[in-house]
Amino acid sequence: RLSFLKSTGTMEILLRPAVPEDADELAALMRNGVTDVVRRITIIGSPRLSRFVADSIEGGQDDFVVGTYGDRVVGMCAWRHCGDALQLNHLYLSSKIRGQGIGSALVVNGLRKSRRADECKLSVDVFLDNPVARRWYQSWPMRLEQQFAWIEFVLPCATEQEAGTCLIEGWAEAEANHIRHGLSRFTLKTSNASFVIGRLGSRVFRSGNFQILSDPVALQKLRRLDSKRHLLCVGAVRELAGIKLHSMTTVAYSERFVGLCSDATTYLTSALA
Q: Checking phi first, is residue 70 left (phi over 0); if not, alpha (psi -120 to 50) or beta?
């Protein structure tokens, strides 16, 4: 439990593992904690976000922790295990309790309880349209590892069939996931490369890098799958210089900070004290 003083007396926040029944309140915190742009380009904008969160908690893909006041969820965080790194995947608080140390307490709790023995690194991503969160993460003992650009492209029209074969893997599972969550992913394989493609709602395909832009066979396959969707690519800012395509729009920028779990734990514990 975490206690702090307010004008009306002492307020106690209970930190505990999330359960699927928390999903509606967690989804509301997530939606209210980001801008319209971020809702549009991430799972947070899905009308079926609550179901996605409930399934994630039940399936154990991420470790979800909540902070409750009375019978209400007022804060949450989610942790993802990525090899030797522990990623802070989500951190959201009710506007009524921000600035009270609850965010730091949630992070310390996760670093102590979710971290596995072989996970020494901590990583966190933040959008530049959230300057308050960005300044907070910049104050931690971490370094800026990467800057990302979120670029939206109109899929090119083809006047003739592109030469080459493009295979799809995981389409049936992707269809089922999309119906359930409004989010899915599948794999495109051409003679040149393999690309993991996400689908967000009914608007965009999403790629985790810019390499697909150099593969016309893959681009045409996406257009044949759904000509109404655009392609959202997320890649390192330094790679943008080599991209010369028309109909591209910069949607957002984000940054990734990386440090040691032990250093972050010491820093945030000291801040709470």
A: left
C-alpha–C-alpha distance, residues 47 and 178, integer Å? 12
- Of 197, 191, 194, 192, the C-alpha closest to 171 is 197
d(CA 93, CA 77): 9
Residues whose CB falls within 8 Å of the CB of residue 154, separated by 6 or more in sequence, listed in order: 230, 231, 246, 247, 248
Give residue-wise pLDDT tens across range 141-176: 999 999 999 999 999 876 555 567 899 999 999 999
Q: What is the pLDDT of residues 37-54, one digit of tens each?
A: 999 999 999 999 999 999
Could you give the C-alpha distances from 206 to 4, 22, 106, 116, 226, in angstroms and in order? 42, 28, 30, 30, 13
Ramachandran region of residue 227, left (φ > 0), alpha (ψ -120 to 50) or beta?
alpha
